[in-house]
Specification:
Blueprint: H1 22-48, H2 55-84, H3 92-124, H4 129-132, H5 135-151, H6 154-158, H7 178-224, H8 230-281, H9 287-310, H10 313-320, H11 324-344, E1 351-353, E2 375-378, E3 382-384, E4 410-413
Length: 420
């Protein structure tokens, strides 16, 4: 989001030779190709795969659309600026490009904020999620995000809320006043950053709390089970320990996931917005350094279609149908998991009590159930082992992006009610 406007009076028809070297041109072309190709592929997957057409993915489509516009509309002219050292397109396109630059980058950041809010509602209160986040409300939030991004971009440029600074500079940049930069940056970056950090930290706390609850539940399962044989008791105890260990690993993975997401976001955009505010106060930031920070922010649109689907199994399955290397990786992973499950359950007794536990059937948090008189009861359901089919587990309890329904073994019932 370059924020300074100034064009030399020289004609843009004589392009001359680009000042940038071949390595810079190749690197920028790769970034543009990855941004456009990755976001286009994910939009295509969501539109063509019925399994991906969910309310949560509305926000991902909006994010990928804004990132796609960054790759198709914003990056190519910015690359020409870097290579030629000046604005080589028509003068009438300068303001339009700057407006799209600010709008698309702001929309991408605001969409990340909406995704964090959606994950927050889903994981903190999954039983009420569908009632709270309806398709109409999701579309309304997306429309509000794009409207705010458009107001922060097209309105100031076309209302003349900027300075015609750097008239001897051949570049197309917008030099805005300090009050406008503070308001625009606050609405499109600093406030969304606070919201993203808060929601993801709350998600992490909830995920770790659920992992502790599952570990405690697995430890106390032996007191609730009535094994028929000593071998069955030993197998059930071992299964419960594996169950708790898997959820601990899930909590660790959730922590690493949040670290990657927040780290990529702040590394990409925080330096630019800080430099953008400083630049309005003093002319002490070199132009080349500011351009590097601008492209670092652009690269966030390149990483979004890589980072987010990386933690979503539905996208991996759908991508395996289109990309040969993804299909090979998914088939190999599936075969390894299947082999591991067969080895871990070989020699197990014929009847093993299993506990299925997911975020949609978890222990309720305060305020999640209308009736305050509820208690957690564990239904012991011996299941007969089926050849070639691994027994159900609850390993997806602490997953930020995969909330797969499983058969509920944990039942909520009124206090003092008889247990079946």
């Amino acid at each position: 989001m370059a924020l300074e406007l100034g064009l030399a009076n020289s004609s843009s028809s004589s392009l001359g030779a680009p000042e940038g070297n071949g390595w810079v041109a190749a690197l920028l072309c790769v970034i543009i190709a990855l941004t456009a190709g990755g976001n286009s592929l994910l939009i295509l997957l969501i539109c063509t795969q019925p399994a991906l057409r969910s309310t949560s993915n509305y926000f991902l489509v909006s994010l990928f659309t804004s990132d796609l516009l960054v790759g198709l509309v914003v990056m190519p002219p910015a690359m020409l600026n870097e290579l030629y050292g000046r604005w080589v397109l028509a003068r009438s396109l300068c303001l339009l490009w700057v407006a799209f630059d600010v709008m698309c980058c702001s929309a991408s950041i605001l969409n990340l904020c909406l995704i964090s809010l959606d994950r927050y509602l889903l994981i903190l209160s999954p039983l009420r999620y569908k009632g709270r986040m309806t398709p109409c409300r999701a579309l309304a939030l997306i429309l509000a995000a794009w409207s705010l991004a458009a107001l922060a971009s097209f309105l100031p440029t076309h209302m003349g809320w900027h300075q015609q600074g750097g008239l001897m500079s051949p570049n197309c940049r917008l030099l805005a006043s300090l009050p406008f930069v503070l308001v625009a940056s606050g609405l499109t970056f600093f406030l969304p950053s606070v919201a993203i950090s808060f929601t993801y930290c709350r998600i992490l706390v909830t995920a770790r709390k659920q992992a502790v609850q599952v570990a405690s539940l697995a430890t106390n399962m032996e007191a609730l089970q009535v094994p028929r044989t000593p071998n069955l008791a030993a197998s059930a105890s071992s299964e419960n320990r594996r169950f708790a260990a898997k959820h601990s690993r899930r909590a660790l993975k959730a922590s690493l996931t949040l670290g990657i997401l927040l780290g990529m976001f702040f590394v990409a955009w925080l330096p630019f917005f800080v430099a953008n505010v400083i630049q309005t106060v003093c002319d002490c930031i070199p132009e080349v350094f500011f351009d590097v920070l601008t492209w670092l922010g652009y690269c966030n649109s390149t990483m979004n279609p890589i980072i987010y689907p990386l933690f979503m199994r539905d996208f991996k399955r759908a991508m395996a149908k289109f990309v040969p290397c993804a299909r090979w990786a998914w088939d190999r992973r599936t075969s390894l998991v299947s082999l591991s499950m067969r080895n871990s359950h070989s020699g197990a007794p014929q009847f093993i009590p299993q506990v299925g536990f997911s975020l949609q059937h978890r222990m309720t948090l305060p305020g999640e159930v209308d009736s305050g008189a509820s208690a957690l009861q564990v239904a012991e359901q011996p299941q007969e082992a089926v050849p070639g089919r691994s027994p159900p587990t609850g390993t997806d309890a602490v997953s930020l992006f995969d909330v797969d329904p499983v058969e509920p073994e944990l039942k909520l019932s009124a206090l003092n009610a008889p247990v079946d």
